[in-house]
Amino acid sequence: MILSPFGVIGGAVAGLGLVIAARGILPGRPDLNDVLSRMDATRLENLERHRDARPNSAMEKAGALLLRSVGEGTLRLPRQQLELVGRSPAAHLGRKLGLALYGLLLPVLTVGLANLAGAPFPFAIPAIAGLGVAVIFWFLPDLQLKQQAVEAKEDFRYAIKAYLRLVQLERAADAAPTQALKRAAEVGEGWVFAKIRDTITRAELEGISPWEGLKRLSIELDVPELGAPADIIAIAGEEGAAVGDTLGAQAKSLSGALVTSAKAQANTASEKMVMPVAMLVLIMTVYIGYPALSRIMAS
Fold this sequence. Notes:
The chain is an all-alpha fold. It has helices spanning about 5-25, 30-40, 60-70, 70-75, 80-85, 90-115, 125-170, 175-185, 190-205, 210-220, 225-240, 245-270, 275-299. The N and C termini lie far apart (about 60 Å).
């Protein structure tokens, strides 16, 4: 039986309407962990300004609706990666929904466009193909987010190296540990320094020391390079020790680790280019040598 593309689209729209109606009549129970997380005022994510911003796009609003209905604990969102790239869970879910919807309709649209162009498909594409493509497209934003998080963590390390140098200079100018952390964060630019400034401000509002806030931020973002200087400054703030040389050594060690990582990435990229370059040389050799060889064989 050959299914009509318009019939499949109509059935998909009708099924989506039934699902939305069922969700409205029988709302799902909220996830307990998600509710307790929102009620806990000591968690840093509840104090960030971008959490209060309203969704802008239609897909982001749909993601926010899905987040409220199902709960973040059920969806298992990669929270650390979202924090690193500065993306809200609603925006991430909206992107996943948009790509999944596009994947669901892609086979039907392909068949419809082919029919309109006068080149119909020789076989019918079942509706289950759209479901398979939708599932694949649903996980594509997660893969992109993982790669973006790796790049953001690398940028974070470079910014922390500069931040250590700035804190060392502030301490050399006889600034107190708290003032050194705050002034160094105010000097720098970029999203990493903005994140550090917000963390220090939230720490002051919560009544805790800035190095405790930085330590907690390093754990939440899984960036241990920020936790080590926080421990060093904690020693200076609690025991009054001179930590300028220690901060410089920490920055130098981090700089060496970043150079090693950059060399490893360059070597990996070079190794990936070996096979394409070898194939290109082989093709050019055959392309140039075959005419001469054919003439020699013919004579």
